[in-house]
Amino acid sequence: MSGTDLAVDVAIVGAGIAGASVAYWLTRLDPTLSVAIVERDTGFAQASSQRSASSIRQQFSSPVNIRMSQFGLAFLREAPDRLEVDGDRPELGLQTPGYLYLATPPQADALRAQNAVQRAHGAPIELLDPAGLSARFPWLATGDLALGALGAGAEGWFDGPALHTAMLRRARAQGARLVRGEVAGFELSGAGEARRVGALRLADGSRVRCGHAVLAAGAWSRPVAALAGIALPVHARRRTVFVVSCPEPLPDCPLVIDPTGFWFRPEGRAFIGGTTPDPDEDDLPLEPNLGEFDEALWTAFAHRVPAFEALRIERAWAGYYEMNLWDHNALLGPWPGLANLHAATGFSGHGMQQAPAAGRGVAECVLHGGWRTLDLSDLSVARLAEGRRVMEANVIG
Ligand SMILES: Cc1cc2nc3c(=O)[nH]c(=O)nc-3n(C[C@H](O)[C@H](O)[C@H](O)COP(=O)(O)OP(=O)(O)OC[C@H]3O[C@@H](n4cnc5c(N)ncnc54)[C@H](O)[C@@H]3O)c2cc1C
After folding, report:
1. 212-258: per-residue pLDDT in tens?
2. Interval between CA 16 and ligand 1 midpoint (Å)
3. What local confidence, expressed as pLDDT, does residue 397 receive?
4. Domains, in order of start, for the chain
5. CA-based nearest residue to 171, from 280, 313, 20
6. The model's pTM
7. Which residues approach ligand 1 with their CB closer than 6 A?
8. In this structure, which residue's CA is closest to atom 41 in ligand 1?
9. What is the CA radius of gyration of the chain?
10. Angle at CA 295, nearest 5°, toward 291 and 297?
11. pLDDT for the residue 202
């Protein structure tokens, strides 16, 4: 499309997992709807959805995040049926050995309090004392630990890029149109309560006129929102994932979150892991920072798993977290003051697992003007203006 005009009911900016999920749910819930997803790079070279660690947990401290991941897990289990196209059923390789959050004595009460919230919301997370941890995971050093929390059967990992590809393909099979182009502006009209988006302007001069617009541009959501005069606190923060090999197997290894903050999990016969960089700066180039795996991190890995003394770094990759600096949680739903603009962004490191729920919630807001199947109001964009923060204790890096 170049220099032409398209008119649709809903135009979505960005065809990563967030945009694809909104398009999937819109076209599934109302097959008569016309939906365009505008994407500047249909090879998704930098998209977070193709660079994710793609893990899913229920060990959050806020009920809305627990509910979203429970919805995500159910969706992943049903995905081969839900996302089948022409007899081709996506293979997402879901495995559920759990997340294992580890706590030192001063951290144990907080882990117990979170566990109570999780269990109250139906998350089957088991608490293990050091003896229980050693019995279950003999390769783990437990000397400095007081407690572990394990969600075996309910948490784990999957092939995130395959989910992204399958979600987009199914949305297109249901009628969503993928438009290649870069959104370079918004046409706004009206004033006060009636202020709205009339069209997206693309860099090649095309326009996509729309009844509703959805901002799902991942780590680039802040510059895109600025085109509509909106200040969005979503920042592109680079994360490096290291692929390491270990001569000894670690039977039944879950995704381990160390009390010092680093994480690792199996990936095939190797392991992947990472940590939060310090300092954590905006917009760094998307190249892995090998220096992050320094002596201190190596020592920390080997301290927790003595077999990692002999680990070898095989390779590394980097991707952006679309970090919402307001409170490190997703920003969803209608934009106050721009009635027909909706957000699905700011997932801050948990967007792969939350995309199925976020897509459904935002699609229902577009279709019905409010939350329906899932009440995601805690994560509504309105909280920025209200000064309300979602206090999620378990943010990973
Ligand atoms: C290293 C790493 C590990 C992660 N681990 C996990 C995990 O274990 N579990 C989990 O749930 N999540 C994880 N995440 C987070 C998850 O991957 C992201 O939250 C999710 O992929 C975000 O999806 P998105 O669609 O919002 O963004 P993206 O996938 O980045 O898609 C945004 C799209 O918008 C397009 N775009 C941007 N600007 C424009 C424009 N102006 N015009 C047109 N198109 C535009 C981009 O080209 C891009 O394709 C991880 C992320 C990283 C980087």
Report:
1. 999 999 999 999 999 999 999 999 999 999 999 999 999 999 999 99
2. 6
3. 65
4. 5-71+160-233+327-386 (3.50.50.60), 99-156+235-323 (3.30.9.10)
5. 20
6. 0.97
7. 13-19, 38-41, 44, 47-49, 51-55, 182-183, 216-220, 224, 239, 241, 319-322, 345, 347, 349-353
8. 183
9. 21
10. 80
11. 98
